[in-house]
Amino acid sequence: MKGISLLEQAGRYGAIVSLLATSSPKAPLNLFSYQRRLPPLDTLPHTVPFSVENDKQQQQPYANSINVLYTNDIDVAFRWAQKNLWTDGTNGSSSSSPKVLGWDMESSPRLPWLEDKYRSDTYFGPATIQLSTVSESLVLQIAQDQYGPIYDQTVLPEFIHDILNDHNIIKTGVGIDEDMIELYRWCRDLEVAEKHLSWATNGSGDPSSATPPLRRFDIGGIGSSKPGGTIGLARLVAGVLGVRIPKSSKLARSHWSAAPLRIKEVDYAARDAWAAAAILHRLNGLDPSRFSPGSICQRLLDAQNEEKLRSIRDVSDRAVDRRAAKLEWKTLRPQRDAEGNENPVRTETERARFEFLTETIRALAPMQPISYEIEESLGLKIP
């Protein structure tokens, strides 16, 4: 019962669904699961035109509280996935109909100003994965202090690999490729078997491959006024849903592996994943020809055929190559004196190399989110 008393003293979750204890070769691990309702969100006046005509319903309760499950127990998390994603009771195949899943991840950063407070068993790196539908959220602890990665053999629970591999589940968020790259590198560095990384390697080097790349959709291009522009999550939520989600740089830098997390940390993490699902839920209600799961799948297929949707491994490798090219490019960048003359003067070989690196950096630029206009067509203005 030690875990319960610690939670009570810390003022953390009052409703405990289950709290079990087990042991591991590397450290004892307390399994925990909590459920709660996220607090309602503040509504923003005069930002979103809700009406029976354009929504086919009165305002969706996007400001209302939603259910969140926070756990490090793989069995509890798997049951959540079965209930909310695999409604037919099977895992690894959602159904023939695509569906949207809000996705987010939090990692424990190593902050220089806290260096003297870290211990030898303090963990840094990916710590939680958040999954969400428009009404249910899951915050899954995948690593924690004094233990490290919780799931030894596959690093990620098997059902998470199944979700990633399921092409009928559209993983969505702002800047989702960054999370996926970090997750892939984490698994790779921990020597996860190649068969468990198919979600990251499928489609590598061959856009016409029979096994397409990870199906993910970056919502950051929705409402952007210029091609390649990206809108942040808080602005999208305000413009599309008419509510305000709490954003805090301090919370974003939380030590996410200090499990169990505080209530405000779990709420913050869950809302980010929920927001992505809720945004597409509302846009689908307004314009299914562009924002239904099937329509999004078609846009992603088009992007794949145009070589604009690559495997996570390819995206990761290209990012490494681009960074190396930029570092060398900086050393060859011309320096100019007060009169604008190049000083020192570069050799022809150096100039040619500089031009080559410039083109390489441009060619290796990351994929931009698909742009969608929503102000004129739907009356939604991003603040």
TrEMBL record:
GO terms for molecular function: 3'-5' exonuclease activity; nucleic acid binding. Residues 147-284 form the 3'-5' exonuclease domain. GO terms for biological process: nucleobase-containing compound metabolic process. InterPro entries: 3'-5'_exonuclease_dom, 3-5_Exonuclease_domain, RNaseH-like_sf, RNaseH_sf. It holds the Pfam family DNA_pol_A_exo1. Gene3D superfamilies: Ribonuclease H-like superfamily/Ribonuclease H. The keyword Nuclease applies. One of its GO terms (cellular component) is nucleus. The keyword Zinc does not apply. SUPFAM superfamilies: Ribonuclease H-like. Keywords: Hydrolase, Nuclease. This is 3'-5' exonuclease domain-containing protein.
